[in-house]
Design goal:
Strand content: 5-15%
Largest sheet: 8 strands, parallel, barrel
Order of helices and strands: HEHHHHEHHEHHEHHEEHHHEEEHEHEEEH
Shape: globular
CATH superfamily: Glycosidases
CATH class: Alpha Beta
Strand order of the largest sheet: 1-2-3-4-5-7-10-11
Number of domains: 1
Helix content: 40-55%
Radius of gyration: 22 Å
Bound molecules: 5-hydroxymethyl-3,4-dihydroxypiperidine
Number of strands: 13
Oligomer: single chain
């Protein structure tokens, strides 16, 4: 009896202590995004989205993988019967949180007009179902996709987009703000505009690549401003949770440290890929070199003083870090900005996103701690897809040894950084399930759970069991 009372008091006391410090326990989770997993692309009055259009009408995957694939069915996670099974798989995995995104084109089908109650009710139920299972929802408001009606008005090329996004975000925050404790305003603006749009326009556009990159930066900048405004709105609502924005980061190093051209290219790429976002997000400034360069290539690139003031004044509660691989930078006069970094990988192991070097994640986290005043950091995505056949089902099992090893070593890097005082608040593996990988369609698998895209059958892979073990080991 005494023992039971002592244990109970300990539980209550640690609860009070966490509350007093306004802390939630460390979040161990898996991540996904609406267009990549939901399917059911016309259910409950959903409007057409940018990616519905790109996949169905433009056939964008054709340029990259030579065949047309869409997210029309994806992995069927809009369907409650399906997602309840997936919640069960998360429970068995041992995660205490799930990061997913809302689909703006479901909630406001034409982007700015009538609100679709059916879609709001769907996400309400999903959030409740997760909570019943003991899984905290971490909600991304925007992950690459938005209503097609707004694409027709130039999307982020139009300054009004900031207001349209704020209107949508307000509806979502008012509806879910009391039960969701972590929101993310945007996911990876760099990838959304530089890489995805660049890849998609490669064939058609006659403009030099550097100009297209610079135009992309103006759209990125608008998302940064929209994010800061929504952070302000959220703080004014006083809901007691946290809000941040997620960026993809790839710490840079020269491919050949003895080649001065590689060294110079790498220093510039570090600013373009990482510093520009960290400075913009935490300090409300952009590196001068980067500003000058974008203004040179796109004279319309003009962040105003008022924009920068909004960025500087509205501090996020945490930084969302998506880390896959560092960038090895090679000077190449023929490439945009005279450098190449994508597909540069001299390591033996080839992951789709670059070299597998968890120590670079550790160093990067420590660097943020030192240079940006030790902010709270959530690893909002970390994972890998390999160009081998480790995702093949053999006798009902998937032995993805490379992914299991990748997850293990990156978690160790996070734990090490945490021990050294980096304020880590969560780790999310990308992804829980194999899903629709944008321009690569269904050809690039990142899941801890294998999905048969024809039958929707799920098979937990070796990496799922490895993650399960690691969560148990590091939970406390
Ligand atoms: O699938 C994507 C995700 O949508 C954004 N971050 C990177 C993942 C893997 O490429």
């Amino acid at each position: 009896m005494k023992k039971i009372i002592a244990t109970l008091s300990l539980i209550i006391l640690s609860g009070i202590a966490l509350k007093a410090q306004n802390q939630t326990p460390f979040l161990w989770g898996v991540a996904s995004a609406a267009y990549q997993v939901e399917g059911n692309y016309q259910a409950d009055g959903k409007g057409e989205s940018k990616w519905d259009f790109l996949t169905n009408k433009v056939g964008v995957t054709q340029f990259i993988i030579g065949k047309k694939e869409t997210g029309n069915v994806a992995i069927n996670m809009y369907d409650r019967t399906q997602y309840l099974k997936d919640i069960q798989l998360m429970k068995e995995l041992g995660v205490n949180s799930y990061r997913f995104s809302l689909d703006w084109s479901r909630i406001i089908p034409d982007g700015v007009g009538a609100v679709n109650e059916k879609a709001l009710a769907h996400y309400d139920l999903l959030i409740d179902d997760l909570k019943v299972a003991g899984i905290e929802p971490v909600v991304t408001l925007y992950h690459f996709d938005y209503p097609f009606a707004l694409v027709q008005k130039e999307g982020w090329g139009n300054p009004e987009m900031i207001n349209w996004y704020k209107n949508y975000a307000k509806i979502a925050l008012e509806r879910y703000g009391k039960k969701v404790k972590h929101f993310i305003t945007f996911n990876e603006p760099y990838i959304e505009f530089f890489v995805a749009e660049y890849l998609m326009n490669m064939e058609q556009s006659k403009e030099p690549a550097v100009t297209r990159f610079a135009r992309g930066m103006m759209k990125v900048h608008r998302e940064m401003v929209a994010s800061a405004e929504v952070i302000k709105m959220y703080h004014e609502m006083n809901l007691g949770g946290k809000i941040g924005m997620t960026f993809n980061f790839s710490p840079c190093s020269p491919l050949d440290p003895n080649n001065p051209n590689d060294v110079k290219a790498s220093a510039l790429q570090e600013k373009l890929l990482n510093t520009v976002f960290l400075d913009g997000y935490f300090k409300g400034t952009y590196p001068k070199e980067v500003l000058d360069m974008f203004t040179k290539y796109d004279p319309a690139f003009l962040p105003t003083a008022a924009d920068m003031k909004i960025l500087a004044a509205n501090k996020p509660d945490f930084l969302g870090v998506n880390f896959y691989a560092p960038a090895l930078v090679k000077y190449d006069a023929a490439e945009p900005f005279e450098m190449k970094w994508m597909d540069v990988n001299t390591d033996k192991v080839k992951s789709a996103n670059g070299p597998v070097r968890p120590e670079e994640l550790y160093k990067f986290l420590v660097k943020i701690k030192k240079e940006y005043n030790n902010p709270q950091i959530m690893i909002t995505e970390n994972g890998a897809s390999f160009k081998n056949n480790e995702d093949t089902v053999i006798s009902g099992k998937v032995n993805d040894v490379l992914r299991a090893d990748y997850i293990k070593r990156h978690i160790e890097a996070v734990v090490k950084a945490k021990k050294e005082g980096v304020r880590m608040i969560g780790y999310f593996a990308w992804s829980g399930w194999d899903n629709f990988e944008w321009v690569f369609g269904y050809t690039s698998r990142f899941g801890l759970i294998h999905v048969n895209f024809d039958t929707q059958e799920r098979i937990p892979k070796q990496s799922y069991f490895e993650y399960q073990k690691l969560i148990k080991e590091y939970k406390n």
